[in-house]
Automatic annotation (TrEMBL):
Keywords from the named record: ATP-binding, Glutamine amidotransferase, GMP biosynthesis, Ligase, Nucleotide-binding, Purine biosynthesis
Matching CDD domains: GATase1_GMP_Synthase, GMP_synthase_C
Protein name, entry field: GMP synthase [glutamine-hydrolyzing]
Catalytic activity: XMP + L-glutamine + ATP + H2O = GMP + L-glutamate + AMP + diphosphate + 2 H(+)
């Protein structure tokens, strides 16, 4: 594998994706990981990401000098390049004008292994306020640009390479070629990695780690925890037990579907806890969104604990954490907007020997591919994301059993109509929200005073930003008509045309 060492750059995920596009497996780790630990992993190469900081800032992320002395090829990108220069006693300084955007750069050393098959001049993407002003001993400059005379440097004997620009973004014309040169010519990667080797390798790793011990998994019915559970099940069979806490705020019939798939199709040890009433009691009178999230997150943990205690000693906990979760919940270096309850959510005092997170380095589409290869039904693999707190954060205001049923019905109709129109894989996420607003309507000869349902659809690739989906009017019309006619207590349907930001995808 190749390691992408994260220094807080916004392009970290993108670098990992580009590496895997070259059929080279890669992992992402925080810059805080000690070199001693990294050395054990036999990485073929290490890529240092960019980052928003300046190397001179005391608080900015640094690395040990030993990182560059392992004999493993290193490619520093942007901040990573500056850090390499700084750590090895070169010099870094501010730019007279910070460079941002598409910039022309020139390869000044045609022999450089990093720039093979890259023309003398081409476009690259620059985004920096600092730059390398003096290369460390043993390095030579291999590329320049108008305002950045040291756009790239290398020390081939030590296998150290650095570029000030971003080869991972599309604006860098020959970026992928540069990454390929690093991976294949310098790191000598084979480029034979495919998803099935990830599965084989992961199953083997789980077997080695777990041996004959027991694993407990919190199954939510979402794509991630399902794929993680099936993967672990493939590795250790009946030594895996899954607890599925049904908090009563899942989509229509979802609880039963989960039970059927895992118990019948996969023959897994599955315990379903029907805790709907319990959760409703705790949520009575609560209207504050964060409070709802806390209550459900907390309740989920307590229910899970109580159930797992009945099982006796379990050694490992399996979780379906995927890479974007790691970033979104601020385990990486980015900010937290909402408290997600399913990430790092279970307390450490549950007494597990360790945690198993087989999908921690994967992106969503990769998780789906693993799921498909493992034989998980299509409708589960392609299930859109669903928040841990479920419909609780799609019912504004107080939650009641009646409101849950109303929303479940409205949401099921909307999803059915979107699927009928063949749009279910095209819209990233779509659902109904039960607003707390009632308005006047007329049905038959009578006045009504009922709830407003809001429909929401978004187009996004990473769920960090999203555009409202342009769902065809006739699909919206059909959904609206059916919801009003078939769902009691609803007399108005609206469509949410706000993007993220400024709105979030969920309403709470
Ligand atoms: P927001 O509303 O923050 O949602 O724009 C971004 C994505 O995250 C999902 N989401 C959650 N997922 N637990 C989850 O597992 C949560 O508490 C949670 N809150 C939001 C949301 O559905 C969207 O896909």
């Amino acid at each position: 594998a190749v390691l992408v060492l994260d220094f807080g750059g916004q392009y970290c995920q993108l670098i990992a994706r580009r590496v895997r596009e070259c059929s080279v497996y890669c992992e992402i780790k925080s810059y805080k990981t000690p070199v001693k630990e990294l050395a054990k992993k036999n990485y073929k190469g290490i890529i240092l990401t960019g980052g928003p900081n300046s190397v001179y800032d005391e608080k900015s992320p640094h690395c040990e000098k030993a990182l560059f002395e392992m004999g493993v090829p290193v490619l520093g990108i942007c901040y990573g390049a500056q850090l390499m220069a700084y750590t090895l006693d070169g010099k870094v300084g501010g730019c007279e004008v910070s460079e941002y955007g598409k910039t022309e750069f020139s390869v000044t050393d045609a022999e450089s292994p990093l720039f093979q098959q890259v023309p003398k001049t081409s476009a690259c993407w620059m985004s920096h306020t600092d730059r390398i002003t003096e290369v460390p001993a043993g390095f030579r400059v291999t590329a320049d640009s108008k305002s950045c005379p040291i756009s790239a440097m290398e020390n081939p004997e030590q296998k150290l390479y650095a570029v000030q620009f971003h080869p991972e973004v599309q604006h860098t014309e020959f970026g992928q070629q540069i990454l390929k040169n690093f991976l294949f010519n310098i790191c000598e990667c084979k480029g034979d990695w495919v998803m099935s080797s990830f599965i084989e390798q992961t199953i083997q790793e789980i077997q080695e780690k777990v041996g004959n011990k027991k694993v407990l998994c919190a199954l939510s019915g979402g794509v991630d925890s399902s794929v993680a559970a099936v993967l672990v099940h493939k590795a250790i069979g009946k030594n895996l037990t899954c607890i599925f806490v049904d908090h009563g705020m899942l989509r229509k019939d979802e609880g039963d579907q989960v039970e059927t798939i895992f118990r019948k199709q996969f023959d897994m040890n599955l315990i379903r806890v029907n805790a709907g009433e319990q959760f409703l009691r705790k949520l009575q009178g609560v209207t504050d969104p964060e409070k709802k999230r806390k209550i459900i997150g907390e309740g989920f943990i307590r229910t899970f604990e109580a159930e797992s205690r009945k099982l006796g000693k379990m050694d490992f906990l399996c979780q379906g954490t995927i890479y974007p979760d790691v970033v979104e919940s601020g385990v990486g270096n980015s900010a937290t907007i909402k408290s997600h309850h399913n990430v790092g959510g279970l307390p450490e005092d549950v007494g597990f020997e360790g945690i198993i997170e087989p999908l921690r380095d994967l992106f969503k589409d990769e998780v789906r591919e693993v799921g498909t290869q493992l034989g998980i039904p299509e409708n589960l693999v392609w299930r859109q994301p669903f928040p841990g707190p479920g419909l609780a954060i799609r019912i504004l205001g107080e939650i009641t059993a009646e409101k849950i049923a109303t929303l479940q019905d409205a949401d099921a109709i909307f999803r059915e109509e979107v699927a009928n129109a063949g749009l279910n894989k095209k819209i990233s996420q779509y659902f109904a929200v039960l607003t707390n607003m009632r308005s006047v309507g007329v049905m038959g000869d009578g006045r009504t005073y009922d709830y407003t349902v809001a429909l929401r659809g978004v187009a996004t690739s990473d769920f960090m930003t999203a555009d409202w989906a342009r769902i065809p009017y006739d699909v919206l019309e059909k959904s609206s008509e059916r919801i009003i006619n078939e769902v009691k207590g609803v007399n108005r349907v609206v469509y949410d045309i706000t993007s993220k930001p400024p709105a979030t995808i969920e309403w709470e």
